[in-house]
Amino acid sequence: MKNSIRYFLLILFVSYAAGITLFTHSHVINGVTIVHSHPYNKDVPHSHSTVELDLLHLLNHFVSTSLVVVAITQLFIPLFSVTLFSKPIDIRYHVPYFGLAYLRAPPVLFS
What we know:
The chain crosses the membrane at residues 61-85. By secondary structure, this protein is mainly alpha-helical.
């Protein structure tokens, strides 16, 4: 499960970084320039609805003044990172029944 999460978070980060870096463009709406990024075809002009523009504004201008949110975020990210990327110190192999790990064939005498 940890390996799956590692790769998922890596792919999520790389795709997010590529999305905000490679597809940046702007729209001028009512004299206001809106700069954002998302994958689009440069040859085909596109526009956004008012709801989409409001969502872009909310996603790009999220501000929280609550000290609790800041404290939780500052604690969560390091703890999550340590949990996700730490390697187990001691690996033990458990046998479901005591003694089965020591079973062997009977001794053989060559004559």
